[in-house]
């Protein structure tokens, strides 16, 4: 990989320091709660500082505190930026925090991923954001894979290139401080060395403050690191260069074997005694001062609500369009189901068979929308990360998500209704067909909003699928098809009104057997004459003609209600993550 192109030295440089900070896990047993104990360290500008230590030593926790991901109000001691207490909202604007897992959209290209991140985080025009992205692609050495999808099977990008994209996503706003959690994790030695070389060049040429965690760096990587913060059992055992660490070990009487990595030797021997003890600082005196900062923590956004919705809609539309198993499979499924059900119920005039057709149609339409659950769960991880860095508002995401599915689900609804409506032989008036299509579209939107709502709560696909399938079954049971409303126990009657099956099922019945023509239609004939007309059946079912449109409004209420609940759940999760 070619080294990044040289840039002008940065005017504003930032030094991060901690003074006697301690951190405990909230609500944990006291003997296991303390993760960091009286930690004092610093990261100067223009250098690469590595936090090193064994697993469970507190490396990621310390990095999260330095990044402001763990709010200073939850930490005792002082976190200083250029000698002043950290203001989290301001620090997030000048810093980039790259976590260990790569939360990227697999079907976007590196260029698209960086461009959307730039448009969301920069107060710039689209062309200015594109110029910044092209500059960053050259700096990251991604020009040769800029147009390849991130996870495109045999044509995807490598692990090292994927990691550089993750770093680039948090560098689009040209942060003065860059904090990375295990940037070399899962990479081969060559890719890992390339990543560290790139970071070293950024620090030295641009004056960035770069802090990273790393588990067991090789000798060539150690040569590129300016300072080591060695941490064990939540305490700093050494901060300084690898040379000063070796010198300290020798002074303590240790004999370092030839060709042995000094850092590995230090980690093997430090459990018995401290290698280097920093000057102690009184952390308690800073605690009250830092806690007050939480009241003034505000997130400043680069775009307006409308701007965020437009950018997120474009990104989500592109993702859905490229997810063939979600988009194309759904379209094919709608066509085949429409033709299949149409041929099964073709010209069947029996009223019980018609009701069975309506019920089965709703079962198919409501149950088939759970396929969007994996997409929502993947998006949730990215949403939490992006909103925690102030890229956009949660409300903008929920609105964009809802808007993008409108045309996709409309297409699916029409592909289903066009064959099935005419094959089954339902009423031939155009307004009745359009109403039937509208109800099918509303059902799909209801189910989509329902899945989106519960995806915000459940932790994984297995639990989400179980919860959604169970609730859908309950809705079907209490819809009034299997057991009439009058026979449902009073303590269960609320489920009848919450059922997503009830309102579209009634709408189908009224659309077919309502109106002047429907009321006169004979549904059951005996030698003595017509026994049941459409009007008699509608009245027997307890329906009124006015419900034909009131049920549409109720379904619309369900769609909006589940989206509002989705927003509340996601907002709470993202707010909790920021705090």
Automatic annotation (TrEMBL):
State whether keyword ATP-binding applies: yes
What topology does the record note for this protein and the membrane? Multi-pass membrane protein
Q: Span of the secretion signal?
A: none
List the PROSITE patterns. Answer: ABC_TRANSPORTER_1, ABC_TRANSPORTER_2
Keyword Transport belongs to the record: yes
One Gene Ontology molecular-function label: ATP binding
Instruction: Write down the SUPFAM superfamilies for this protein, in alphabetical order.
Output: P-loop containing nucleoside triphosphate hydrolases
Q: Which residues form the ABC transporter domain?
A: 16-258
Q: Which InterPro entries match?
A: AAA+_ATPase (IPR003593), ABC2_TM (IPR013525), ABC_transporter-like_ATP-bd (IPR003439), ABC_transporter-like_CS (IPR017871), ABCG_transporters (IPR050352), P-loop_NTPase (IPR027417)
Gene Ontology CC: membrane
Q: Where in the cell is it found?
A: Membrane
- Pfam families attached here? ABC2_membrane (PF01061), ABC_tran (PF00005)
Q: Which residues cross the membrane?
A: 327-349, 355-377, 398-422, 434-454, 461-483, 552-572
Q: What is this protein called?
A: ABC transporter G family member 2
Which species is this record about? Answer: Rhynchospora pubera
């Amino acid at each position: 990989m070619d080294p990044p192109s040289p840039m002008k030295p940065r005017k504003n440089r930032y030094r991060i320091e901690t003074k006697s900070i301690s951190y405990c896990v909230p609500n944990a047993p006291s003997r296991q709660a303390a993760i960091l104990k009286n930690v004092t360290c610093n990261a100067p500008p223009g250098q690469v500082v590595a936090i090193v230590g064994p697993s469970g030593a507190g490396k990621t926790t310390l990095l999260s505190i330095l990044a402001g991901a763990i709010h200073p109000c939850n930490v005792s001691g002082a976190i200083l930026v250029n000698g002043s207490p950290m203001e989290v909202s301001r620090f997030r604007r000048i810093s980039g925090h790259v976590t260990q897992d790569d939360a990227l959209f697999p079907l976007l290209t590196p260029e698209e991923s960086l461009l959307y991140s730039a448009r969301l985080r920069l107060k710039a025009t689209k062309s200015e954001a594109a110029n910044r992205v092209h500059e960053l692609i050259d700096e990251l050495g991604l020009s040769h894979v800029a147009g390849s999808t991130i996870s495109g099977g045999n044509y995807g990008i490598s692990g090292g290139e994927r990691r550089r994209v993750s770093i680039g996503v948090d560098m689009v706003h040209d942060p003065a401080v860059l904090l990375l959690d295990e940037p070399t994790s899962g990479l081969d030695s060559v890719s890992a060395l390339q990543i560290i070389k790139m970071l070293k060049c950024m620090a030295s040429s641009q004056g960035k403050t770069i802090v990273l965690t790393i588990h067991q760096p090789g000798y060539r990587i150690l040569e590129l690191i300016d300072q080591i913060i060695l941490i064990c059992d939540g305490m700093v055992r050494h901060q300084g260069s690898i040379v000063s660490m070796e010198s300290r070990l020798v002074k303590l009487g240790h004999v370092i074997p030839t060709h042995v990595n000094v850092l590995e030797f230090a980690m093997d021997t430090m459990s018995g005694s401290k290698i280097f003890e920093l000057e102690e600082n009184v952390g308690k005196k800073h605690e009250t001062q830092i806690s007050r900062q939480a009241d003034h923590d505000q997130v400043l956004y680069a775009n307006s609500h409308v701007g965020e919705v437009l950018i997120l809609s474009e990104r989500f539309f592109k993702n859905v369009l490229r997810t063939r198993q979600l988009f194309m499979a759904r379209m094919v499924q709608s066509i085949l189901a429409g033709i299949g059900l149409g041929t099964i119920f073709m010209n069947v005039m029996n009223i019980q068979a018609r009701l069975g057709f309506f019920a089965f149609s709703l079962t198919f339409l409501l149950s088939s929308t759970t396929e969007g659950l994996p997409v929502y769960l993947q998006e949730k991880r990215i949403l939490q990360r992006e909103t925690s860095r102030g890229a956009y508002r949660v409300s903008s995401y929920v609105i964009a998500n809802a808007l993008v599915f409108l045309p996709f689900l409309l297409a699916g609804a029409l592909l289903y209704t066009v064959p099935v409506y005419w094959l089954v032989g339902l009423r031939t008036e155009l307004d009745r067909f359009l109403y039937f299509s509208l109800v099918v579209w509303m059902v799909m939107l209801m189910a989509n909003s329902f899945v989106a709502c519960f995806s915000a709560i459940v932790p994984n696909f297995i639990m989400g699928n179980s919860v959604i399938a169970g609730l859908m079954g309950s809705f079907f049971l209490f819809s009034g098809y299997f057991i009439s409303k009058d026979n449902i126990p009073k303590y269960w009657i609320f489920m009848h009104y919450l059922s997503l099956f009830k309102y579209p099922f009634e709408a189908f019945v009224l659309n077919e057997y309502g109106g002047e023509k429907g009321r006169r239609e004979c549904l059951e004939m005996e030698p003595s004459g017509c026994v049941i007309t459409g009007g008699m059946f509608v009245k027997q079912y307890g329906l009124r003609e006015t419900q034909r449109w009131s049920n549409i409004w109720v379904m619309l209420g369900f769609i909006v209600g589940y989206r509002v609940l989705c927003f509340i759940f996601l907002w709470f999760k993202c707010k909790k993550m920021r705090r």
